[in-house]
Amino acid sequence: QVQELQLEREMALAANRSLAEQNLKFQAPLETGRADLSNKYEELQKLAERCKEQKAKLEKFAAAMHPQTLLDLLQVESQKIEEESEKMAEKFLEGEVPLETFLERFAVMRKLSHLRRVRVEKLQEILRKSEASQEPGGDSQ
């Protein structure tokens, strides 16, 4: 029995040695795989951070493109061009601006002023319609 146990022990040692040698063969690919995985994980973290930054930018632009915000900005710009054209007319009446210059600039300013006013009115109409369509739905909820 002792000889059988010794034989089993030697067989187990040989099997273990064989398994250990096979495991050593897999060590290099495993370490390479771990390094690749680590690099990919770092790349993923960088991409996730970049994605968060882009999302924040997108949300900022989306907020700026809100219809009420656009209406407010358009009204401000409309008022500015209106004031500029009035100042131009005053300068012309005071003789500070020649007729040709006045006609060219004033026509452009008035055209822009009218376009903005029309856009403001159209956007206000759209917002009123949007609010009106949302009110009945909001009451029922």
TrEMBL record:
It comes from the Eukaryota. Belongs to the VPS37 family. GO terms for molecular function: calcium-dependent protein binding. This is Vacuolar protein sorting-associated protein 37C. PANTHER family: VACUOLAR PROTEIN SORTING-ASSOCIATED PROTEIN 37, VACUOLAR PROTEIN SORTING-ASSOCIATED PROTEIN 37C. It is a peripheral membrane protein. Residues 2-91 form a coiled coil. Component of the ESCRT-I complex, a regulator of vesicular trafficking process. Required for the sorting of endocytic ubiquitinated cargos into multivesicular bodies. May be involved in cell growth and differentiation. Gene3D superfamilies: Helix hairpin bin (1.10.287.660). Keywords: Coiled coil, Endosome, Membrane, Protein transport, Transport.
